[in-house]
Amino acid sequence: MSGLRELRNNGVVKNVGEARETPTGTPHEFATGERSTRNRVARSILDHGPSTVAELAGRLGLTQAAVRRHLDALVADDVVEARERRVYGTRSRGRPAKVFALTDCGRDAFDQSYDKLAADALRWIAEREGGPEAVSAFARARIAAQAEAYRRAVERAEPDQRTEALAKALSADGYAATARSAPVGEQLCQHHCPVAHVAEQFPQLCEAETEFFAELLGTHVQRLATIAHGDGVCTTFIPKISQTTDNASASTAGRNPA
What we know:
The chain is α+β, with helices and mostly antiparallel strands. Helix content is 50%, strand content 12%. It has two domains: 2-110, Winged helix-like DNA-binding domain superfamily/Winged helix DNA-binding domain (Arc Repressor Mutant, subunit A), CATH 1.10.10; 122-243, no CATH class.
């Protein structure tokens, strides 16, 4: 698992150029350049979610052949895996595009987390303090403790820029979030989740976050996908304010039922 060791030793990946197709330096220099570029490929998938070869090549300024070579190595090391891109809505003709997503091992390579300790603590809370309701109370308290920075960011933004402001605030906390336009609304995409492994066992963490987004943005929101449920990106649909009512409540976290 040499790929995992390389990623763990490069928590902050340097933005360096692509190694030359034909090495001109020492073997060590060439190997170092290859490792650095491979880490950039993995980091780009972490930051942007499941990606095609063409998308990675465009973001990183590499040839598609070079990207494929690095992806082959990352797949061999169980850092990334190939899958079909999920399509929301009407599927176009032709074979769905192949995308590359991080595996659980790949995500672990970027995380210095205490997942087992956190899961054990939440299990203890559930067993001793009132079951799932106690975990939900903890999840809401956790979000409330983080809420002030998010609230300030959203309140300072213009109404039509609040989703983007929230995405930037989430990115500052390690969620690699982006906002993009969608039919009759926007999508908030979190390409990384520091607590994904714990949320697999305790979905109350996702549910509390979804409720908080709805309260913060002043509108009903719908969770379409979550990393904790096996999706490549946590995706939240935020409809236009004019098409919702003030009293709408947040949906629970989970996959798009379609």
